[in-house]
Amino acid sequence: MTTTTAADVLSLELSEKVLARLATLGAAVPVGTGVPTRSPLSGGTLFELAATDAAGVAAAVQRAAAAQRDWRMVPAPQRGAVVRRLGELLREHKDTLADIVTVETGKIVSEARGEVQEMIDICEYAVGLSRQLWGRTIASERPGHRLSESWHPIGVVGVISAFNFPVAVWAWNTAVALVCGDSVVWKPSELAPLSALGSAALLERALVESGHSPDISQVVLGDRAVGEALVDDSSVALVSATGSVRMGREVGPRVAARFGRTLLELGGNNAAVITPSADLKLVTTGVVFAAAGTAGQRCTSLRRLIVHRSVKEQVLAKLTAAYSRLPIGDPFDSGTLVGPLISAKAGDAFRAAVEAAVGQGGEVLAGGNLVAVDGLSGVFAMPTIVDMPEQAGIVLEETFAPILYVLTYDDFDEAIALNNAVSQGLSAAVFTRDQQEAERFIADDGADTGIANVNIGTSGAEIGGAFGGEKETGGGRESGSDSWKAYMRRSTNTVNYSSALPLAQGVTFLS
Ligand code: UN1
Questions:
Q1: What's the gap in Å between 164 CA and the centre of ligand 1?
Q2: Of 290, 319, 375, 387, which cross-links 457 as Cys (Cβ 3.0–4.6 Å)?
Q3: Which pLDDT belongs to residue 3?
Q4: Does 461 lie in the same domain as 382?
Q5: Cβ pair 6, 13 in contact under 8 A
């Protein structure tokens, strides 16, 4: 006889909630085996979905490739109209999709809705972009010649996304890829397949309503093997992958071996420098949101605080006071600011990191433990601050949990050196009212990250900028600015409208 635990009852409730939301979104749920769905609220399994096998991945890619051959000929502004419709549907169903995100990832309601808002934002951005896929005209050195460049759809884009932004990252890639004339095959995180099914259902509706093939968007479900099949498929022109550095190290060379393109968004080990002139009110809000928000599970989460010796005591007093008041609990409760970690494994990694930090001479100033939350059976970590004697060992690692390591500096050059002395290069921030320091931080010899902020934390980037980072973060850029260029192929065109054929560089041949 099996006994039903409180966690089982909660898992059942969450299953019902998520299935009702999926029905509202019009999503079919491929029940089967291979992909168990889970919730970090109960820590248990909800129900199981059918995994896509290798043949299924190949078939999905071929369907996407066939559909793309027509899609690429649809004028870009008309492709934009489909993305506009997707944005409208997301607006209409914002809270419904956000609820699924909360069930699957444990994100608090406000952040889950913020994630769907980020999807809406990128749709709107992509609609505008659909009329701005500009090439240039370049001065030719030859008379009667026009030199220009044009941008064309690249083909099938494979999107591999992570659990922490289970839907926004797909939307960044997909909204832009669609207006660029590409089709998309999505392999969502195996920890968040349900929010993927919900999002894809809305896109399918937008496509069908506008008279286009739903095959332009494909979802494949499963673990690593499914990701590998997608990565190795030579019909996938671009693999856009978000995840760990370890994952990127495998994906990068595999795609390169077949001369495919990659766009990699890997780990971060983001720091904020707190200078003597910093506005401490901004520091407190900025640091607490960046370090403890999303339970420290963003790539852009703040992990290192590089604080000037003269303000250290004051800064830490404010931060520890704020940390002691952070409500940890049910992410569906409106008062909660810190929800559960994604899994028991993440809880183990949190504990191991705190232990390692203490072993390396760290002093725990706030948090440090896992806590139980009434009525839920997931794993909850107390947002933690550890004062470290030096930047070494565990501080150099990205632990996906709310742990903030404190480092002390005396001289601004030293602060920049500490900021840059990690292998990742995603996001960095400086809090200062000194203009020289602010400018220096974002100058050529400043922070070496893809995102460098002044008087604002490391996380919570807007979609208008290019998102991504350097070094082991992978070098990719997605979302705004000119990131769209990664989703297109560039063609340089020389047109001779004269009756002579002068050769470039003054070469003479047959004349
Ligand atoms: C991520 O952490 O994987 O800047 C993406 C932010 C979000 C996106 C983060 N807009 O925090």
A1: 8
A2: 290
A3: 83
A4: yes
A5: no
Neighbouring-strand partners of residue 49: 31, 35
Same domain flag for 325 and 394: yes
In a domain, 229, yes or no: yes
How many CA atoms lie within 13 Å of 143's alpha carbon, on the beta-carbon side? 3
**Residue 460 Cβ contacting ligand 1 at under 6 Å:** yes
pLDDT single digits (tens) 365-397: 999 999 999 999 999 999 999 999 999 999 999
What pLDDT digit, counting tens, does each position of 90-133 carry? Answer: 999 999 999 999 999 999 999 999 999 999 999 999 999 999 99
Phi, psi of 270 (to 5 degrees): -85, 140
Cβ–Cβ < 8 Å for 451, 469? yes
Q: What's the pTM value of the predicted model, to 2 decimals?
A: 0.97
- What domain range includes position 449? 270-465
Q: Is this complex's ipTM strictly greater than 0.95?
A: yes
Q: What is the pLDDT of residues 211-232, one digit of tens each?
A: 999 999 999 999 999 999 999 9
State the closest ligand 1 atom to the C-alpha of 268, by its place in the atom list counted from 1.
2
Q: Is the minimum distance from the CB of 449 to ligand 1 under 6 angstroms?
A: no
**Tally of domains in the chain:** 2
Nearest-angstrom CA–CA distance, 277 and 437: 10
Q: Where are the beta strands (DSSP E) in 321-383?
A: 363-366, 370-371, 380-381
Average pLDDT over the chain, rounded to an integer: 97
Tell whether 253 and 359 lie within a shared domain: no
The CATH code of the domain that includes 347 is 3.40.309.10
Pocket lining: 473 vs ligand 1, CB cutoff 6 Å: no
Do 154 and 193 share a domain, yes or no? yes
Active site residue 48: no
Give CA separation, 194 vs 229, 235, 342, 412, in Å.
Answer: 21, 26, 15, 46
pLDDT of residue 1: 54
Q: Is the CB of 302 under 6 A from ligand 1?
A: no
pLDDT tens-digit series, residues 170-192: 999 999 999 999 999 999 999 99
Give, for ligand 1, the residue of 467, 473, 478 to mutate: max count of ligand atoms closer than 8 Å to Cβ.
467
Annotated active-site residue in 118, 190, 265, 472: 265
Q: Does 55 score more than 60 pLDDT?
A: yes
